[in-house]
Design brief:
The protein has 162 residues and is an alpha+beta fold. It is built from 3 helices and 5 strands. 13% of the residues are buried.
């Protein structure tokens, strides 16, 4: 009876080990697919240091970058009364050029024409109208050039060795 019980335990442990290997393979493949989906939909929120705002001190610029598609969405938000489309365009273009230079892109193209929308923000003062100027851009031509060191002294020996 003890021999039969030990044989059954050994067989069940062997079956469990084989089954565990199969599920590990399935889980590994699922995690790669999930990783792909996560990378595809991953976006990074950026608040530029230099927002190129000009005279409008109430305005804010924020960007959302999707590295998988090289797409940037730029939002310029200000109060309804102080909105000037020319200033909005200049601020968005300045931030876009800074982003392209900082990340090694050489060009960009507009995926849709710029849009302007008005809205009332419930978190701020009641009945305060805001205007948002929106651009959807795809970055093109990521250069393979090495960036200059932060100290600005040209190429160091470490950079030239690579």
């Amino acid at each position: 009876m003890k021999k039969l019980l030990s044989i059954l335990v050994a067989l069940s442990l062997a079956a469990a080990a084989v089954y565990a290997d199969e599920t590990d393979d399935i889980m590994e493949n699922m995690s790669k697919e999930e990783l792909y989906e996560e990378q595809k939909t991953k976006s990074i929120d950026i608040v530029p240091k230099d927002q190129h705002l000009g005279d409008d001190k109430k305005a804010k610029v924020r960007m959302t970058f999707n590295p998988y598609y090289d797409e940037v969405r730029i939002y310029y938000t200000t109060t309804f009364s102080s909105f000037d489309q020319g200033e909005a365009m200049n601020a968005v273009l300045g931030c876009l050029q800074d982003f392209a230079k900082a990340n090694g892109y050489t060009n960009y193209r507009y995926l849709m024409p710029p849009k302007t929308r008005n809205f009332i923000d419930k978190d701020a003062k009641p009945k305060m109208k805001y205007t948002e100027y929106f651009n959807h851009v795809q970055m093109i031509g990521k250069s393979n050039m090495k960036s200059l060191p932060k100290n600005g002294e040209g190429n160091s020996s470490e950079d030239s060795a690579e």
